[in-house]
Write a structure and sequence with these properties.
By secondary structure, the protein is an alpha+beta fold. It has 2 domains: 141 residues, no CATH class; 158 residues, Histidine kinase-like ATPase, C-terminal domain (Heat Shock Protein 90, 2-Layer Sandwich). The protein is built from 9 helices and 7 strands, in the order αααααβαββαββααββ. Strands 2-4-5-7-6 form a 5-stranded mixed beta sheet, with helices on one face. A hairpin with a 2-residue loop joins strand 6 and strand 7. The longest helix is centred in the middle third of the chain and has 69 residues.
């Protein structure tokens, strides 16, 4: 059971227990010298009122507020609340007249103590009423934020998928022009990448090992495409077993290195290093700084969208540093996967 659900259950059970125990400790008494519930007929009546308040609280939270208060039926909602409270006002008088329930003998004191008891439970009724309205309002706000985030995530992923596919197809085309035989192997890798993209569009997370497999296929494609033009140093330290990550999250950083870090007129070195441990991922990508200006102006759609996805999916759980130093373009990403 998730911790949030368990905490909610514990909270509701605790509040219900305290609410039902309150009459024993705080019920009004016609005999101030009576000890707790001994010789105090109000305890039973107060217990019934507290139970009814608790029952109304859950009906209010589950049904009345969502279906009436927040659906342009506030008039009906407040009429229902007034009706319920009016009924609560009658409960002490009704119970006090039941023959087998002991009460104080003086009938002229009945209405006085009924008023005291209703006033006593009024504040509990108002707290439960307002709690239902405020809690549902907060849940609706969170749901709206979550729906907005999901819609934005789908939009970002929809942009990344064709962008990544377009760059990969360019690699296949380049290989076909140079070595048609090698293109067959490249197409197999391309099919794996395509399958991964289709799967990624349906899932919010995947095994980190799957991401690393596709990343390896993509790097192999680029090696086949550029041959002697590039020198790629790729390493993975640590085990990805049991770790999950959002699909297509780290590939755009590597894709950017191949897109902007290669100069056909000279040997271009690209370093890709991944370190895993303690449910954390560290990605280091380093390449020659050939097209830094294009990147800053935002031509890297995949990179910009990936930054936004990090903000949405891993708030306060990642550190991203992108900088230029000594003619190199460096990306350093640290991500908590727990």
């Amino acid at each position: 059971m998730p911790n949030s659900k368990r905490n909610r259950i514990v909270f509701h059970v605790t509040v219900a227990g305290i609410t039902l125990l309150m009459p024993v400790l705080d019920a009004p008494s016609p005999k101030p010298t009576a000890l707790l519930m001994l010789n105090n007929p109000f305890v039973g009546i107060d217990f019934v009122l507290h139970f009814l308040c608790l029952l109304f609280g859950y009906v209010n939270y589950v049904y009345l507020v969502p279906n009436l208060f927040y659906r342009k039926s506030k008039t009906i909602y407040f009429l229902a609340v007034i009706f319920v409270f009016a009924f609560f006002c009658l409960v002490p008088d009704i119970l006090a007249r039941i023959p087998f329930i002991p009460y104080f003998p003086a009938d002229d004191e009945l209405h006085i103590h009924t008023i005291v008891q209703v006033r006593h439970v009024f504040f509990l009724f108002m707290v439960i009423l307002l709690y239902g309205i405020v809690t549902v309002a907060e849940e609706r706000r969170r749901a709206a934020v979550n729906e907005k985030m999901i819609a934005e995530m789908r939009y970002l992923k929809a942009q990344i998928n064709p962008h990544f596919l377009f760059n990969t197809l360019n690699s296949i085309y380049a290989i076909l022009m140079v070595n048609p035989l090698e293109a067959g192997k490249a197409i197999i890798k391309m099919s794996n990448i395509m399958r991964h993209i289709l799967k990624a569009s349906e899932n919010s997370s995947e095994h980190l090992s799957e991401t690393l497999d596709i990343l390896k296929d993509y790097i192999d494609l680029q090696n086949d495409r550029f041959k002697e033009t590039i020198d790629v140093e790729y390493s993975v330290q640590g085990s990805p077993e049991g770790l999950q990550i959002a699909p297509l999250l780290i590939i755009p950083f590597v894709e950017n290195a191949f897109k902007y870090g290669i100069n056909p007129s000279e040997k271009s070195k690209i370093t890709i290093r991944i370190e895993l441990g303690d449910n954390k991922l560290k990605l280091v990508v380093s390449n020659k700084d050939f097209h830094l200006l294009n990147f800053i102006k935002g031509s890297g759609i995949g990179m910009e969208n990936t930054k936004r996805r990090l903000q949405l999916l891993y708030p306060d759980r990642y550190q991203l540093e992108i900088k230029k130093a000594n003619g190199m373009f460096n990306v350093n990403l640290q991500l908590s996967l727990s």
